[in-house]
Predict the structure.
Amino acid sequence: MAIDDGVEVAPAAQVEITKDLRLPPTTDAATGVIYLGTQRFVHAYGTDNVFLGPNAGNFTLTNIENVGIGASALQSLTSARGNVAVGQGCLRLATSGGYNVAVGYFALDSLTTGAENLGIGGNALGALTTGSANTAFGVNAGGTITGYQNVVI
């Protein structure tokens, strides 16, 4: 059942859009958000940010130009810019730091404040919490790296 102005209504079996779907800007959890069940699924909270996936992104971010695609991608972000996370759990603990790129299941998932890191592959740079300028390619690549300016293939 769906709720419309406090009244339960039966959901339609199908919605057909023949022109544009226009959402208002995302300003909070109730405005400009598409939900999948009870989880936020698509929103663009902030300036030039895009989040797609169950619980990707959040509604407390204060910076710009972040992209999170996948369940819980960039879910803790507060003041970072220019991050790209593609895959479940990518950059999920990142709060600040910018210009990180994580692609793959839980890539860079422990990073909290590092910047300019590149992790491509499942769990790439998985243990990194605060390091910067690290690059890792491959599944579990750089899984124990904790420093700066490392390259692991």
